[in-house]
Amino acid sequence: MQGILLIDKPREWTSFDVVNYVRKQVAAAEGKKPKNVKVGHTGTLDPLATGLLVLLVGKEYTRRATELSKLDKTYEVTMKLGEVSTTGDEEGVKTALSDVQPSRETIEAALQQLTGQVMQTPPAFSAMKINGQRAYKLAREGKTVELEARPVQIYRNTLTAYEYPYAWFTSEVGSGTYIRSLVEDLGKLLSTGAYMSDLRRTHVGAFDIADTYRVDATDLLKNLLLL
Q1: Which fold has domain 73-204?
Q2: Choice among 8, 17, 46, 211 that is catalytic
Q3: Which regions in the chain score pLDDT beneath 70?
């Protein structure tokens, strides 16, 4: 069984949860043990995020993980102003920073300023490796995490709605861009602080959220794509 499976990842599932679930389904269909089945993905989504997760099923496709993980991505982002979070999202400890209510025009200008090639520091609670260990593991142990800024490509940020303290925008980005870091950088530009309160991925390259399936869909494996 080989192919690409487009899943709409549920909130509070990790990307590994989805991979593990599909691996067990493939193993059952092929009469194998799950450990003998190859299933991977082309880019992690945080547990609290939802949306398009591109799964690779079978050895021929998992070998293409590096190639397919470099695709551009589009996200629908909810940003909460006036507070910061230790994790950059809803999971962390929140601290009130400012009650200033920026105008819609000010937010749009900040979004525009953070487009093109920008320097971005990955969040401490990320899967980046430091001396062979995941940054989030070190951060959860209370250790200091120092990650270097690196260039990322942000093609377009479009404000879609604003009702203080929440702003909603769409972000089209290159591979390796962290939306949590983008939101934190916006909070700094606006002098209000901000964290990402919700995230939904809608596109990965040419793959579209409209073509995804729920993990509990009937006959899920019949929806494998061959490229």
Answers
A1: Pseudouridine synthase (3.30.2350)
A2: 46
A3: 124-147
